[in-house]
Amino acid sequence: MSFDSLGLSAELLRSIKDQGYTKATSIQEKAIPAALQGKDLMASAQTGTGKTAAFTLPMLQKIAAQADGGRRHIKALVLAPTRELAAQVEDSVRTYGRHLKLRSLSVCGGAGIGPQIRQMNSGVDILVATPGRLMDHMERGTVDLSGVETLILDEADRMLDMGFFPAIEKIVKTLPKSRQTLLFSATFSAPIQKLARNFMNSPELIETAARNSAGEQIDQSAYMVDSNRKRELLTHLIGTENWGQVLVFTRTKRGADQLAKQLEQDGIRSTAIHGDKSQGARTKALKQFKQNSVRALIATDVAARGIDIDRLDYVVNYDMPDNPDDYVHRIGRTGRGGEQGSAISLVSGHEKGQFASIRKVVKKEIPSSTVQGFEPQQRPRQGPRPGNGNGNRQGGRRSFQR
Questions:
Q1: What is the pLDDT of residues 108-154, one digit of tens each?
Q2: Same domain membership, residue 131 and residue 70
Q3: CATH number at residue 301
Q4: Partner of 24 for a Cys bridge, out of 29, 179, 251, 277, CB 3.0 to 4.6 A?
Protein backbone atom coordinates (compact mmCIF):
# COMPACT_ATOMS: atom_id res chain seq x y z
CA MET A 1 0.00 0.00 0.00
CA SER A 2 1.22 3.49 -0.84
CA PHE A 3 1.94 5.94 1.99
CA ASP A 4 -0.32 8.40 0.15
CA SER A 5 -3.37 6.34 1.14
CA LEU A 6 -2.68 6.19 4.90
CA GLY A 7 -3.98 9.66 5.80
CA LEU A 8 -0.61 11.28 6.46
CA SER A 9 0.01 15.01 6.03
CA ALA A 10 1.83 16.54 3.07
CA GLU A 11 4.82 17.43 5.25
CA LEU A 12 5.24 13.83 6.42
CA LEU A 13 4.76 12.43 2.92
CA ARG A 14 7.48 14.79 1.76
CA SER A 15 9.87 13.48 4.44
CA ILE A 16 9.03 9.88 3.52
CA LYS A 17 9.76 10.65 -0.11
CA ASP A 18 13.06 12.28 0.90
CA GLN A 19 14.07 8.89 2.34
CA GLY A 20 13.20 7.10 -0.89
CA TYR A 21 10.22 5.16 0.49
CA THR A 22 7.01 4.72 -1.51
CA LYS A 23 5.19 1.66 -0.14
CA ALA A 24 4.31 1.04 3.48
CA THR A 25 5.25 -2.20 5.22
CA SER A 26 2.58 -4.42 6.72
CA ILE A 27 2.94 -3.04 10.25
CA GLN A 28 2.87 0.56 8.94
CA GLU A 29 -0.18 -0.16 6.79
CA LYS A 30 -2.11 -1.48 9.79
CA ALA A 31 -0.82 0.67 12.65
CA ILE A 32 -0.70 4.16 11.12
CA PRO A 33 -4.43 4.54 10.25
CA ALA A 34 -5.48 3.07 13.61
CA ALA A 35 -3.11 5.37 15.52
CA LEU A 36 -4.34 8.40 13.54
CA GLN A 37 -7.87 7.54 14.72
CA GLY A 38 -6.67 7.95 18.29
CA LYS A 39 -6.91 4.28 19.27
CA ASP A 40 -4.66 2.58 21.81
CA LEU A 41 -2.61 -0.11 20.08
CA MET A 42 -0.83 -3.32 21.04
CA ALA A 43 1.33 -4.13 18.05
CA SER A 44 3.75 -6.93 17.29
CA ALA A 45 6.02 -7.14 14.25
CA GLN A 46 9.30 -8.69 13.23
CA THR A 47 12.42 -6.63 13.75
CA GLY A 48 13.35 -4.64 10.65
CA THR A 49 9.81 -4.20 9.31
CA GLY A 50 9.53 -0.44 9.81
CA LYS A 51 8.10 -0.56 13.32
CA THR A 52 9.67 2.73 14.40
CA ALA A 53 8.06 4.67 11.54
CA ALA A 54 4.75 2.96 12.32
CA PHE A 55 4.47 4.91 15.58
CA THR A 56 6.67 7.93 14.78
CA LEU A 57 4.62 9.13 11.80
CA PRO A 58 1.17 9.25 13.48
CA MET A 59 2.73 10.70 16.63
CA LEU A 60 4.28 13.55 14.64
CA GLN A 61 1.05 14.25 12.77
CA LYS A 62 -0.98 14.40 15.97
CA ILE A 63 1.42 16.80 17.68
CA ALA A 64 1.83 19.05 14.62
CA ALA A 65 -1.96 19.38 14.29
CA GLN A 66 -2.26 20.53 17.91
CA ALA A 67 0.57 23.08 17.86
CA ASP A 68 -0.80 26.26 19.38
CA GLY A 69 2.18 28.59 19.17
CA GLY A 70 2.49 28.81 22.94
CA ARG A 71 5.34 27.64 25.15
CA ARG A 72 6.54 24.20 24.20
CA HIS A 73 5.81 21.34 26.56
CA ILE A 74 6.24 17.58 26.32
CA LYS A 75 3.26 16.25 24.34
CA ALA A 76 4.63 12.82 23.47
CA LEU A 77 6.77 10.44 25.52
CA VAL A 78 8.57 7.44 24.03
CA LEU A 79 10.09 4.89 26.43
CA ALA A 80 12.79 2.56 25.07
CA PRO A 81 14.93 -0.06 26.84
CA THR A 82 18.43 1.03 25.78
CA ARG A 83 20.42 4.12 24.86
CA GLU A 84 20.97 2.85 21.32
CA LEU A 85 17.29 2.26 20.68
CA ALA A 86 16.37 5.64 22.18
CA ALA A 87 18.91 7.31 19.89
CA GLN A 88 17.52 5.45 16.89
CA VAL A 89 13.95 6.50 17.71
CA GLU A 90 14.92 10.15 18.13
CA ASP A 91 16.82 10.00 14.85
CA SER A 92 13.63 8.80 13.17
CA VAL A 93 11.66 11.60 14.83
CA ARG A 94 14.12 14.15 13.44
CA THR A 95 14.17 12.49 10.00
CA TYR A 96 10.41 12.29 9.51
CA GLY A 97 9.72 15.56 11.32
CA ARG A 98 12.24 17.60 9.32
CA HIS A 99 9.48 19.64 7.64
CA LEU A 100 7.61 20.25 10.90
CA LYS A 101 8.43 22.85 13.54
CA LEU A 102 8.81 20.41 16.40
CA ARG A 103 11.59 19.81 18.91
CA SER A 104 12.67 16.42 20.24
CA LEU A 105 15.15 15.27 22.85
CA SER A 106 16.61 11.92 23.89
CA VAL A 107 17.51 11.46 27.57
CA CYS A 108 19.51 8.38 28.53
CA GLY A 109 22.00 7.31 31.15
CA GLY A 110 25.69 7.60 30.36
CA ALA A 111 25.32 11.21 29.22
CA GLY A 112 25.52 14.37 31.31
CA ILE A 113 22.22 15.24 32.96
CA GLY A 114 22.94 19.01 32.99
CA PRO A 115 22.65 19.54 29.21
CA GLN A 116 19.46 17.46 29.21
CA ILE A 117 17.94 19.71 31.87
CA ARG A 118 18.86 22.85 29.93
CA GLN A 119 17.32 21.50 26.72
CA MET A 120 14.09 20.55 28.48
CA ASN A 121 13.92 23.98 30.05
CA SER A 122 14.14 25.54 26.58
CA GLY A 123 11.05 23.60 25.47
CA VAL A 124 10.58 20.12 23.99
CA ASP A 125 7.61 18.60 22.15
CA ILE A 126 8.74 14.95 22.03
CA LEU A 127 10.80 13.24 24.71
CA VAL A 128 12.48 9.88 24.03
CA ALA A 129 13.87 8.29 27.19
CA THR A 130 15.13 5.19 28.89
CA PRO A 131 13.13 4.49 32.07
CA GLY A 132 16.09 4.78 34.44
CA ARG A 133 17.23 8.21 33.30
CA LEU A 134 13.66 9.52 33.13
CA MET A 135 13.18 8.44 36.76
CA ASP A 136 16.32 10.45 37.62
CA HIS A 137 14.74 13.56 36.11
CA MET A 138 11.42 12.92 37.85
CA GLU A 139 13.13 12.59 41.23
CA ARG A 140 15.05 15.83 40.60
CA GLY A 141 11.89 17.62 39.49
CA THR A 142 13.50 18.56 36.17
CA VAL A 143 10.83 17.12 33.85
CA ASP A 144 7.13 17.95 33.49
CA LEU A 145 5.01 15.14 32.05
CA SER A 146 1.61 16.64 32.89
CA GLY A 147 0.94 17.57 29.25
CA VAL A 148 1.73 14.21 27.65
CA GLU A 149 -0.98 13.22 25.18
CA THR A 150 0.76 10.25 23.56
CA LEU A 151 2.75 7.50 25.30
CA ILE A 152 4.72 4.96 23.29
CA LEU A 153 6.28 1.87 24.85
CA ASP A 154 8.82 0.56 22.36
CA GLU A 155 10.13 -3.00 22.76
CA ALA A 156 8.05 -3.34 25.89
CA ASP A 157 9.01 -7.00 26.34
CA ARG A 158 12.68 -6.09 26.57
CA MET A 159 11.98 -3.33 29.09
CA LEU A 160 10.20 -5.84 31.32
CA ASP A 161 13.03 -8.39 30.85
CA MET A 162 15.46 -5.72 32.05
CA GLY A 163 13.44 -5.13 35.22
CA PHE A 164 11.92 -1.77 34.27
CA PHE A 165 8.33 -2.61 35.20
CA PRO A 166 8.40 -0.71 38.56
CA ALA A 167 9.89 2.36 36.85
CA ILE A 168 7.35 2.21 34.00
CA GLU A 169 4.54 1.90 36.53
CA LYS A 170 5.71 5.02 38.41
CA ILE A 171 6.18 6.98 35.17
CA VAL A 172 2.75 6.09 33.76
CA LYS A 173 0.97 7.01 36.99
CA THR A 174 2.16 10.61 36.56
CA LEU A 175 0.70 10.91 33.04
CA PRO A 176 -2.78 12.20 32.14
CA LYS A 177 -5.30 9.34 31.97
CA SER A 178 -6.82 10.74 28.79
CA ARG A 179 -3.67 10.03 26.74
CA GLN A 180 -3.26 7.67 23.77
CA THR A 181 -0.94 4.69 24.39
CA LEU A 182 0.85 2.66 21.74
CA LEU A 183 2.68 -0.49 22.86
CA PHE A 184 5.09 -2.33 20.57
CA SER A 185 6.47 -5.70 21.61
CA ALA A 186 7.99 -8.76 19.97
CA THR A 187 5.78 -11.00 22.11
CA PHE A 188 2.47 -10.68 23.93
CA SER A 189 3.52 -12.60 27.03
CA ALA A 190 1.53 -12.62 30.27
CA PRO A 191 3.54 -9.68 31.74
CA ILE A 192 2.91 -7.65 28.57
CA GLN A 193 -0.81 -8.37 28.75
CA LYS A 194 -0.78 -7.28 32.40
CA LEU A 195 0.97 -4.05 31.38
CA ALA A 196 -1.73 -3.45 28.77
CA ARG A 197 -4.57 -4.08 31.23
CA ASN A 198 -3.08 -1.64 33.72
CA PHE A 199 -2.15 1.21 31.38
CA MET A 200 -4.25 0.98 28.20
CA ASN A 201 -7.85 1.63 27.15
CA SER A 202 -9.34 -1.23 25.07
CA PRO A 203 -6.28 -1.48 22.82
CA GLU A 204 -6.58 -2.72 19.26
CA LEU A 205 -4.40 -5.78 18.65
CA ILE A 206 -2.15 -5.76 15.59
CA GLU A 207 0.01 -8.73 14.65
CA THR A 208 1.79 -8.93 11.32
CA ALA A 209 3.78 -12.15 11.82
CA ALA A 210 3.79 -15.32 13.84
CA ARG A 211 5.23 -14.80 17.30
CA ASN A 212 8.88 -15.75 17.84
CA SER A 213 9.39 -15.90 14.08
CA ALA A 214 12.24 -14.52 12.03
CA GLY A 215 11.92 -12.94 8.61
CA GLU A 216 11.80 -15.32 5.67
CA GLN A 217 14.53 -13.25 4.01
CA ILE A 218 17.04 -14.36 6.68
CA ASP A 219 19.04 -17.47 5.79
CA GLN A 220 19.67 -19.32 9.07
CA SER A 221 22.43 -21.91 9.47
CA ALA A 222 24.78 -23.34 12.10
CA TYR A 223 28.26 -24.80 12.35
CA MET A 224 29.15 -27.37 15.00
CA VAL A 225 32.54 -26.57 16.50
CA ASP A 226 34.47 -27.00 19.74
CA SER A 227 34.19 -23.95 21.97
CA ASN A 228 37.98 -23.43 22.05
CA ARG A 229 38.07 -23.17 18.23
CA LYS A 230 35.16 -20.77 17.67
CA ARG A 231 37.38 -17.73 17.27
CA GLU A 232 39.58 -19.51 14.70
CA LEU A 233 36.50 -20.59 12.76
CA LEU A 234 35.02 -17.09 12.84
CA THR A 235 38.26 -15.60 11.51
CA HIS A 236 38.33 -18.30 8.80
CA LEU A 237 34.74 -17.59 7.72
CA ILE A 238 35.19 -13.81 7.61
CA GLY A 239 38.32 -14.21 5.50
CA THR A 240 37.47 -17.07 3.13
CA GLU A 241 33.83 -16.02 2.62
CA ASN A 242 34.89 -12.36 2.25
CA TRP A 243 32.28 -11.04 4.67
CA GLY A 244 32.20 -7.27 4.45
CA GLN A 245 30.57 -6.50 7.79
CA VAL A 246 29.46 -8.80 10.56
CA LEU A 247 27.63 -8.23 13.84
CA VAL A 248 28.77 -10.85 16.38
CA PHE A 249 26.89 -11.67 19.60
CA THR A 250 28.58 -12.88 22.78
CA ARG A 251 26.99 -13.74 26.10
CA THR A 252 29.20 -11.57 28.32
CA LYS A 253 30.80 -8.13 28.26
CA ARG A 254 34.21 -9.62 29.00
CA GLY A 255 33.75 -12.09 26.16
CA ALA A 256 32.91 -9.24 23.77
CA ASP A 257 36.07 -7.31 24.68
CA GLN A 258 38.24 -10.41 24.46
CA LEU A 259 36.88 -11.48 21.08
CA ALA A 260 37.29 -7.99 19.62
CA LYS A 261 40.92 -7.98 20.76
CA GLN A 262 41.57 -11.45 19.31
CA LEU A 263 40.01 -10.58 15.95
CA GLU A 264 42.17 -7.44 15.80
CA GLN A 265 45.21 -9.68 16.32
CA ASP A 266 43.96 -11.82 13.43
CA GLY A 267 43.95 -8.74 11.19
CA ILE A 268 40.19 -8.06 11.30
CA ARG A 269 39.30 -4.52 12.37
CA SER A 270 36.93 -4.97 15.30
CA THR A 271 35.34 -3.14 18.21
CA ALA A 272 33.03 -4.09 21.08
CA ILE A 273 29.84 -2.53 22.39
CA HIS A 274 28.27 -3.38 25.76
CA GLY A 275 26.78 -1.90 28.91
CA ASP A 276 30.09 -1.17 30.66
CA LYS A 277 31.19 1.12 27.83
CA SER A 278 30.53 4.83 28.25
CA GLN A 279 27.87 6.40 26.07
CA GLY A 280 30.59 8.14 24.08
CA ALA A 281 32.45 4.87 23.48
CA ARG A 282 29.26 3.08 22.43
CA THR A 283 28.31 5.88 20.04
CA LYS A 284 31.82 5.88 18.57
CA ALA A 285 31.83 2.08 18.10
CA LEU A 286 28.48 2.14 16.33
CA LYS A 287 29.55 5.05 14.13
CA GLN A 288 32.76 3.25 13.15
CA PHE A 289 30.77 0.16 12.19
CA LYS A 290 28.20 2.10 10.18
CA GLN A 291 30.98 3.94 8.34
CA ASN A 292 32.82 0.67 7.58
CA SER A 293 35.83 1.73 9.64
CA VAL A 294 35.60 -1.61 11.44
CA ARG A 295 34.60 -4.93 9.94
CA ALA A 296 33.28 -6.73 13.01
CA LEU A 297 31.12 -5.28 15.81
CA ILE A 298 31.04 -7.53 18.88
CA ALA A 299 27.97 -6.96 21.04
CA THR A 300 26.03 -8.26 24.00
CA ASP A 301 22.25 -8.64 23.76
CA VAL A 302 21.33 -5.53 25.75
CA ALA A 303 23.76 -3.24 23.91
CA ALA A 304 22.60 -4.46 20.51
CA ARG A 305 18.96 -3.55 21.04
CA GLY A 306 18.16 -0.72 18.67
CA ILE A 307 21.17 -1.20 16.40
CA ASP A 308 19.74 -0.32 13.01
CA ILE A 309 22.17 -0.77 10.13
CA ASP A 310 21.11 -0.77 6.50
CA ARG A 311 22.28 -3.72 4.42
CA LEU A 312 23.95 -5.66 7.21
CA ASP A 313 24.58 -9.00 5.54
CA TYR A 314 25.82 -11.17 8.41
CA VAL A 315 24.93 -11.81 12.05
CA VAL A 316 26.85 -14.43 14.03
CA ASN A 317 25.78 -16.06 17.28
CA TYR A 318 29.24 -16.66 18.72
CA ASP A 319 27.63 -17.73 22.01
CA MET A 320 24.16 -19.24 21.83
CA PRO A 321 21.57 -17.29 23.85
CA ASP A 322 19.71 -18.99 26.69
CA ASN A 323 16.44 -17.32 25.68
CA PRO A 324 15.03 -18.16 22.21
CA ASP A 325 13.46 -14.67 22.07
CA ASP A 326 16.97 -13.22 22.20
CA TYR A 327 17.89 -15.35 19.19
CA VAL A 328 15.02 -13.84 17.19
CA HIS A 329 16.03 -10.32 18.19
CA ARG A 330 19.69 -10.97 17.36
CA ILE A 331 19.18 -12.30 13.86
CA GLY A 332 16.60 -9.58 13.18
CA ARG A 333 19.51 -7.13 12.84
CA THR A 334 20.02 -8.54 9.32
CA GLY A 335 17.49 -9.02 6.53
CA ARG A 336 15.92 -5.63 7.20
CA GLY A 337 13.74 -3.68 4.81
CA GLY A 338 13.22 -6.70 2.56
CA GLU A 339 16.95 -7.25 1.98
CA GLN A 340 18.46 -10.73 2.22
CA GLY A 341 20.62 -11.57 5.23
CA SER A 342 22.47 -14.48 6.79
CA ALA A 343 22.44 -15.58 10.43
CA ILE A 344 25.12 -18.08 11.43
CA SER A 345 25.35 -19.82 14.80
CA LEU A 346 28.55 -21.38 16.14
CA VAL A 347 27.35 -24.25 18.34
CA SER A 348 29.62 -26.12 20.72
CA GLY A 349 28.80 -29.45 22.33
CA HIS A 350 27.45 -27.97 25.56
CA GLU A 351 25.18 -25.57 23.60
CA LYS A 352 23.29 -28.27 21.66
CA GLY A 353 20.40 -28.13 24.14
CA GLN A 354 19.98 -24.38 23.66
CA PHE A 355 20.18 -24.81 19.88
CA ALA A 356 17.47 -27.48 19.96
CA SER A 357 15.23 -25.22 22.05
CA ILE A 358 15.68 -22.36 19.59
CA ARG A 359 14.76 -24.54 16.62
CA LYS A 360 11.66 -25.71 18.45
CA VAL A 361 10.52 -22.19 19.31
CA VAL A 362 11.15 -20.64 15.88
CA LYS A 363 9.48 -23.70 14.31
CA LYS A 364 12.14 -23.95 11.67
CA GLU A 365 14.75 -26.55 10.84
CA ILE A 366 18.04 -24.65 10.97
CA PRO A 367 20.57 -26.70 8.98
CA SER A 368 23.82 -27.52 10.78
CA SER A 369 27.13 -28.70 9.36
CA THR A 370 30.86 -28.61 10.01
CA VAL A 371 33.72 -26.79 8.30
CA GLN A 372 36.62 -28.91 7.10
CA GLY A 373 39.51 -28.55 9.49
CA PHE A 374 37.24 -27.34 12.31
CA GLU A 375 35.28 -30.53 13.00
CA PRO A 376 34.41 -31.05 16.69
CA GLN A 377 36.77 -33.36 18.55
CA GLN A 378 35.15 -36.74 19.15
CA ARG A 379 34.95 -37.30 22.87
CA PRO A 380 35.40 -40.88 24.16
CA ARG A 381 32.53 -42.36 26.11
CA GLN A 382 32.75 -41.94 29.88
CA GLY A 383 33.76 -45.10 31.71
CA PRO A 384 36.53 -46.67 33.78
CA ARG A 385 39.96 -46.03 32.38
CA PRO A 386 42.41 -48.93 32.09
CA GLY A 387 44.77 -49.16 35.05
CA ASN A 388 47.60 -51.31 36.34
CA GLY A 389 45.52 -52.87 39.08
CA ASN A 390 46.98 -50.92 42.00
CA GLY A 391 44.94 -47.77 41.56
CA ASN A 392 47.41 -45.94 39.28
CA ARG A 393 45.67 -45.22 35.98
CA GLN A 394 47.60 -45.44 32.77
CA GLY A 395 46.80 -44.43 29.22
CA GLY A 396 43.37 -43.12 28.20
CA ARG A 397 44.65 -39.54 27.96
CA ARG A 398 42.65 -37.46 25.56
CA SER A 399 44.39 -35.63 22.79
CA PHE A 400 42.87 -32.32 21.70
CA GLN A 401 43.21 -30.78 18.28
CA ARG A 402 44.50 -27.25 18.35
A1: 887 889 999 999 999 999 999 999 999 999 999 999 999 999 999 99
A2: yes
A3: 3.40.50.300
A4: 29
